[in-house]
């Protein structure tokens, strides 16, 4: 095996303020990362910004590059920092290259100036919002412990007023997990969200802040809770919102049933092409593994392309598949789950093998629940019809089984060429 591999493209989540944030969200896994840089100002320099943009664009072999910002809280850098970033993008972009800009923010510092900048430069904004006031403010508080709901809702209104493209990132945790429809309907009807991403909070209970140990905090969502949460939202979405509201995990699932790639690393068979870069140029294997043993190198000392294609990072990506327990390999929904994110694989399987995902029971229940509708919608796609057509058959959130249920010896609707009993009907 060669020491490095030339990747055609990779994703890099840049953190210009490191772990520095103006909030003190109780479940945030990244705030403790400031301990890795005890003497830092936590501000990316202009020199590093230019170096980052140049190297990242040069490393992308495809005619598309996505500049992604996160934190901490990236808006602490101020708008001028990002104006410079856009200038460097134009300086280094190749002819006919498309450059996209994204930012994940808590929204509390947004104003008209920010939103005008986002709109003028076609930024896609991810806004963190955990549901209605009481559910959001349970854990998303500022450094003094004060609630943040009103400030985030103000940000959502500003983004809509300025016609900025944005989606909502909602974490699912102990405080909101038992209120799935309240959360979903609030995001859909009051926030007017068209794109929603649900992120389960699985917070390790340790003193290091790293992905260590096999116990979780009381703030963490339970596996069965998360499964029920997704099922409740899916049933509502299936009846009313297919083709109108886009929920990331539903899109991932439909891609799997249609035989397409999942689009996000958590549900891919392998990973390793989505890395993180700290405010000083240090690169790590993953945003969830900003830890010393997953340090890959600094772009001021090595080329970003070589770091991304290093043998260490290749192994990190392959380990997602290589460490998958036999219990998971035999699972009927492995094709869509693939063991999910390695950060959550700290339980043992029923036969004692390590590496079972903490959320396994919830995912298994959810993916089994959506099997029929997903096969129906995948079939619609293959026939050149919109998946939203499924809503014609829904009644009280249910679909008549005759609409989509193939016989055991019929060809599987997923297009694999196998009989249904040997494919998605296996073990059913």
Short note summarizing the structure:
With 428 residues, this protein is α/β, with parallel strands linked by helices. The chain contains 14 helices and twelve strands.
What does this structure look like?
The chain has 428 residues and is α/β, with parallel strands linked by helices. It contains 14 helices and twelve strands. It has helices at residues 46-59, 79-92, 112-120, 133-136, 149-161, 180-190, 223-240, 248-257, 304-308, 311-322, 326-329, 334-337, 360-369, 371-382; strands at residues 11-14, 64-69, 98-105, 123-128, 165-172, 195-200, 246-247, 274-277, 282-284, 295-298, 345-348, 354-357. Helix 7 links the parallel strand 6 (195-200) and strand 7 (246-247). Helix 1 (46-59) runs parallel beside helix 2 (79-92) and helix 8 (248-257) crosses helix 14. The radius of gyration is 22 Å and the shape is globular.
The ordered H/E elements are EHEHEHEHHEHEHEHEEEHHHHEEHH
Structural class given helices, strands, pairing? alpha/beta
Straight-line distance between termini: 40 Å
Sheet with most strands: 10 strands, mixed
Outline the secondary-structure elements.
Layout: E1 11-14, H1 46-59, E2 64-69, H2 79-92, E3 98-105, H3 112-120, E4 123-128, H4 133-136, H5 149-161, E5 165-172, H6 180-190, E6 195-200, H7 223-240, E7 246-247, H8 248-257, E8 274-277, E9 282-284, E10 295-298, H9 304-308, H10 311-322, H11 326-329, H12 334-337, E11 345-348, E12 354-357, H13 360-369, H14 371-382
Parallel strand pairs: 1-2, 1-8, 2-3, 3-4, 4-5, 5-6, 6-7
Antiparallel strand pairs: 8-9, 9-10, 11-12
Helix pairs in contact: 1-2, 7-13, 8-14
């Amino acid at each position: 095996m060669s020491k490095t591999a030339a990747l055609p493209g990779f994703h890099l989540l840049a953190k210009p303020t490191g772990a520095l944030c103006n909030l003190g969200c109780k479940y945030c896994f990244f705030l403790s990362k400031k301990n890795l840089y005890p003497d830092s100002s936590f501000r990316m320099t202009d020199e590093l910004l230019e170096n980052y943009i140049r190297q990242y664009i040069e490393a992308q072999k495809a005619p598309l590059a996505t500049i992604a910002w996160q934190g901490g809280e990236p808006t602490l850098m101020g708008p001028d920092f990002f104006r410079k970033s856009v200038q460097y993008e134009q300086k280094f972009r190749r002819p006919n290259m498309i450059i996209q800009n994204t930012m994940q923010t808590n929204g509390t510092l947004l104003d008209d100036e920010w939103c005008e900048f986002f709109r003028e430069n076609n930024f896609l904004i991810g806004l963190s919002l955990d549901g209605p006031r009481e559910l959001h403010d349970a854990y998303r508080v500022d450094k003094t412990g004060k609630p943040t709901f009103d400030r985030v809702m103000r940000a959502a209104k500003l983004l809509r007023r300025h016609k900025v493209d944005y989606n909502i990132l909602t974490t699912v945790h102990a405080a909101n997990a038992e209120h799935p429809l309240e959360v979903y309907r609030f995001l859909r009807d009051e926030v007017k969200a068209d794109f929603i991403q649900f992120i389960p909070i699985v917070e390790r209970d340790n003193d290091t802040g790293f992905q260590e140990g096999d116990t979780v905090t009381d703030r963490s969502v339970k596996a069965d809770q998360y499964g029920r949460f997704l099922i409740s939202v899916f049933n509502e979405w299936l009846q009313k919102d297919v083709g109108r509201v886009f929920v990331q995990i539903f899109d991932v699932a439909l891609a799997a049933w249609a035989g397409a790639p999942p689009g996000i690393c958590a549900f891919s068979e392998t990973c390793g092409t989505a890395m993180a870069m700290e405010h000083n140029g240090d690169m790590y294997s993953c945003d969830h593994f900003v830890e010393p043993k997953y340090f890959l190198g600094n772009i001021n000392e090595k080329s970003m392309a070589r770091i991304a294609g290093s043998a260490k990072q290749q192994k990190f990506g392959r380990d997602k598949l290589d460490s998958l327990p036999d219990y998971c390999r035999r699972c009927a929904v492995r094709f869509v789950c693939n063991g999910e994110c390695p950060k959550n694989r700290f339980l043992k399987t029923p036969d004692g093998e390590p590496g079972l995902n903490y959320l396994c029971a919830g995912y298994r229940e959810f993916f089994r629940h959506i099997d029929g509708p997903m096969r129906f919608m995948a079939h619609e796609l293959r026939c050149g019809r919109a998946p939203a057509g499924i809503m014609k058959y829904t009644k009280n959130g249910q679909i008549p089984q005759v609409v989509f249920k193939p016989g055991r010896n019929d060809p599987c609707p997923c297009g694999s060429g196998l009989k249904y009993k040997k494919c998605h009907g296996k073990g059913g």
